[in-house]
Write a structure and sequence with these properties.
The protein contains seven helices and seven strands; from the N terminus they run ααββααβαβαβββα. With about 210 residues, it is an alpha/beta fold. The chain has one domain. Strands 1, 2, 3, 4, 5, 6 and 7 form a seven-stranded mixed beta sheet that branches. A hairpin with a 5-residue loop joins strand 6 and strand 7. Helix 3 packs across helix 7. The protein is globular.
């Protein structure tokens, strides 16, 4: 009886360990869950506006619009092609809820902004994500640092994590130049620029770095 119980416990421990993700899974073909754009620690630099482009407008309208843009235009914002993943499952609820509760008065700034202790900040942000139907597997989120109007630059951290343990497996800072008209499309262009950089060389560079 004791031997059977020991075998059963060993089986479940082995199963649990095998289900956990490692950095190798970031570069292997397979499924990924896209959590979206996390703006919980972001700053918007420069004069964005007092009505359209105000802190409240950015939080209540533009953040959902930027997240929707990526999902509604998958041919352009192709996460599967960028990260060599199939299928890509969209799960925006966790980050959407966090974004909706941001203090809008803290979003705007006039000075350049970078994360202090980014690894700690990102680990803390990821630890707060609620799991959806997929409570295990590989998660992907872009944690936005800033949209800087003065420098014409979007900066963010591309972050892969284990959904079940919330362990950050890889996080890399990227910047992209926004293009296009209107706040939604202009800064969406910055995200697109970052994806093209990843496709061109960054993902391969990361693979060399982490392997």
């Amino acid at each position: 009886m004791k031997k059977s119980l020991l075998v059963l416990v060993s089986f479940f421990v082995t199963l649990s360990l095998s289900a956990q993700k490692t950095v190798a899974d970031v570069f292997a073909p397979g499924e990924v869950v896209w959590y979206g754009l996390d703006f919980s620690n972001a700053r918007f630099i420069g004069i964005f506006g007092s009505g359209s482009g105000s802190g409240e407008d950015i939080r209540d309208n533009l953040m959902p619009a930027w997240n929707s843009l990526i999902v509604l235009e998958p041919a352009k914002y192709d996460m599967g092609k960028t990260f060599v993943k199939e299928p890509v499952i969209n799960y925006l609820d966790a980050v959407g809820e966090i974004n909706a509760n941001i203090d809008a008065s803290n979003l705007m700034d006039i000075n350049p902004f970078k994360f202090e202790s980014p690894e700690e900040l990102i680990a803390s942000a990821v630890s707060q994500y609620k799991s959806g139907e997929k409570d295990s597997g590989l998660g992907l989120v872009f944690i936005v640092e800033s949209f800087d109007k003065a420098r014409v630059e979007a900066s963010l951290y591309v972050t892969f994590f284990d959904i079940s343990t919330k362990e950050v497996l890889l996080t890399e800072r990227m910047t992209g130049k926004p293009v296009g008209f209107g706040l939604r499309n202009h800064w969406g262009g910055g995200i697109y620029n970052i994806l093209k950089q990843i496709q061109a060389s960054a993902f391969k560079d990361w693979q060399t770095k982490y392997n």
